[in-house]
Amino acid sequence: MSSLDSTTRRQIDEPLLIIGFNRPDHMRVLIERLREIEPRNIYVAIDGPRSDRPDEREMVEQCRNLVDEIDWQADVQTLFQEDNLGCGLGVSTAISWFFDHEERGIILEDDIIPDPSFFPYCSDLLDRYESDQRVFAISGCNFVPPEAITRPNDPYRFSQVPHIWGWATWRRSWMQHELVIADWRSRLPLRTLFHRVHRSASGLAYWASFFSVLGRGEVDTWDGQLVLAAMVSGQWTATSNRNLIQNIGFDELATHTFEDRGELQPVMPMPTPTAPVPVVVDARADDWTRRHHFHATALGMVHQASLYVKRRLRRS
Length: 316
Fold this sequence. Notes:
316 residues, Spore Coat Polysaccharide Biosynthesis Protein SpsA, Chain A, eight-stranded mixed beta sheet, 12 helices
């Protein structure tokens, strides 16, 4: 049963985008969670199968058929790709389609299972910061332990980096996203990047190298480009101090995250409505995330460089 009372459930009308591909088992778990709260405005985008993987078509078809399991009263719209667009173009196309129809909303990939309180939390903050140009997005996932958060008793904090394992935003923010970022240095000079990473040399090196890799098209993704958009604009993401999501997607079918490193804090429901907090970046929590989640330290950079060289050698 849902942890939300009936009054709160009736209030969850926030537009919701579900992004799927070839993992029907994961998507089924997500739909079962959504059944607890019965959101009424749902968009479902599913990428097409890869031509060199004949067995994938059946799994993609199973994901499409799962839309029929949304059997509560809901307005459901779908975007099913016939051909495979890949992680970068596929996800960014899905989100752009969503915001072609909605001014704001919640975005969940098929392996992200939110606590029921995630939804009113997002709606609460989407209302609060809708016209606040300092705020870029809202995130429901939390990696940072309480002792590394400046004000751990606050319901949320602000971060320079938008985390996308369960997030929400507005059309105004998504319009800043560009998939091709070959020109990232002209959009985000290194001096500005240095300030965005709280004057961390390792943070500067990490993000500059990552944006360069994305700019050369060496990684098929879309979320690093979202980080760039937030850094270019200097906007911040409201990030929950309680972890509100579970990621069940660490497996051989994952695109990038094959191994669960146990980074997420335990799931803990969020009481809503939340009390407003100062719109100031928590540099201490961001620093912890840089060192422990992104491994943007001297030793971590050496390790990532070795992995990069190995990948290049395998391709050659």
